[in-house]
Amino acid sequence: MTSESPHRLSSDPAPQVSLVIPMYNERDGLDHLFSTLLPIIGAATESFEIVVVNDGSSDDTLQRLLDWQSRLAQLRVIDLSRNFGKEAALTAGLQHCRGACAITLDADLQDPPELIVEMLARWREGYETVVAVHAERSTDPYMQRQLSSGFYRLLNAVSEMRFVPHAGDFRLLDRCVIDAFLQLPERTRFNKGLFAWIGFRPYLIKHHRPARTRGKSAFNFRRLLHLATDGITSFSLFPLRLWMYVGTVIAGLAFVYGSFIVLRTIVLGSDVPGYASIIVAVMFLGGINLFSIGVLGAYVGRIFLESKQRPLYVVRRAHEPSATAAANESR
Ligand code: UDP
Ligand code: MG
After folding, report:
1. Boundaries of domain holding 242
2. pLDDT tens digits, 246-277
3. Which residues line ligand 1 (CB under 6 A)?
4. Is residue 10 part of a domain?
5. 262 and 322, same domain (yes or no)
6. For the whole model, what pTM was predicted?
7. Which of 89, 127, 161, 174 is the most buried (most CB within 10 A)?
């Protein structure tokens, strides 16, 4: 899926560090982001590139990126044909980056760029992946914090994988981790799960996640719920198995109750009343049936999506820095 632009000479040496940043309607934060990021990354390494994926922004994010590109020879802009979602945009960025390691971060500076220095230091020490973990989520609303902790507990309970709670998408990945990640073929990208699956023991850095100062979060409750169901259905078969257990228990109870009724009818003779227990049993079983069909549906839907084998994203154009940008910069 990598499309090399004619501007880029194949003899260009690969940079040491790639910063991969997905952007969706980030026009307001863009200048602030680059002016904060550039001194930090410039001091940390002399050879870097910034790969920004424009995830179908409806504002003028792309135009502003291209303005920056004319001055910044390290900036590469991958323009997707529409909004494919953050997880797909990140995958696009990782697919196009060329660094010996990549650092993925959000455009809104909620991932403090100062940490990049420590991440690189750990990487040079030999860690293959470095993950920033939110020490506390005091900037998130109370309900969201509770739901988020509950979600990780549930996920860890029903899945065989161990997930690092409160790890965001701010992480450093060595080339070997990037390659492993890109080998995973699935369409449903629950990145946290995929990273847990590929292994490579992470080095964790705790940090305080500041609130977003510019623009607004693209994640509402519905999108988060969707992501949570993706996470559970892609990494656990427990919801499917559960109904087998529930069914077994209910069948067992029904058998005991049935035997009791038969015995009672033999001993005491038949009695007509029983409407209440019948209606309760019918409704209860009806509810369970519907629910379990829904769970089946969630997995069948997943199979459906995977079997179509559609690409994860479509690139409209990869804007590579031209030779003039390099000349401007060196002037
Ligand atoms: N993002 C994206 N595509 C989307 C939604 C978000 O590329 O459909 C980017 C967004 O521009 C930002 C990052 O993903 O760089 C995190 O988004 P946001 O700050 O909205 O999420 P939150 O911090 O609330 O989790
Ligand atoms: Mg954010």
Report:
1. 238-308
2. 877 877 787 788 788 788 888 887 766 676 67
3. 22-24, 26, 55, 83, 85-86, 89, 106-108, 110, 212, 217-219
4. no
5. no
6. 0.73
7. 89
